[in-house]
Every structure is written in C-alpha cells, then in structure tokens.
Amino acid sequence: MIQTELKTIKQFQKRKIQVEKELDDLKEDLRNTERKHQETLRRLEGKFFEEKVQHICINKYCVY
C-alpha cells in the first residue's frame, strides 16, 4: 500500500512539473502576444493620426 502511495506521489510530482512548464510557456506566449499587440496598436494609431492630419489639411487647404 505504501509503495502504491509513493508511486502516486511520484506521478503527481512529475505531472506537476509538466503543468508548471506548460504554464510558464503559456505565460511567455502571452507576454509575446501582448508585446506584438502593443506594437501593432501603436503603429495603427500612428497611421490613423497621419491620415486624420492629411484629411484635415485637405479640407482646410494645408500645404507643407
């Protein structure tokens, strides 16, 4: 009986290590995705601002 419990504990410990590694991998993936999202958001906001300025200048006859 003790051998069975010890085996169960060892299996649990192995599975715990696997799950913790999976969690660490997912956290890293999430950080990378968030960083890429922020970069994309900044780029799109910049494009939007440039287009808005161009649109305003076209309507008010701006010349640069």
From TrEMBL:
Keywords: Cell projection, Cilium, Coiled coil, Cytoplasm, Cytoskeleton
DUF4515 domain boundaries: 1-53
Ranges in coiled-coil conformation: 9-47
Keyword presence, Cytoplasm: yes
Keyword Coiled coil: yes
Transmembrane segments: none
Location(s) in or outside the cell: Cytoplasm, Cytoskeleton, Cilium basal body
Matching Pfam families: DUF4515
InterPro entries, A to Z: DUF4515
Family: Belongs to the BBOF1 family.
Protein name: Basal body-orientation factor 1
Gene for this chain: BBOF1
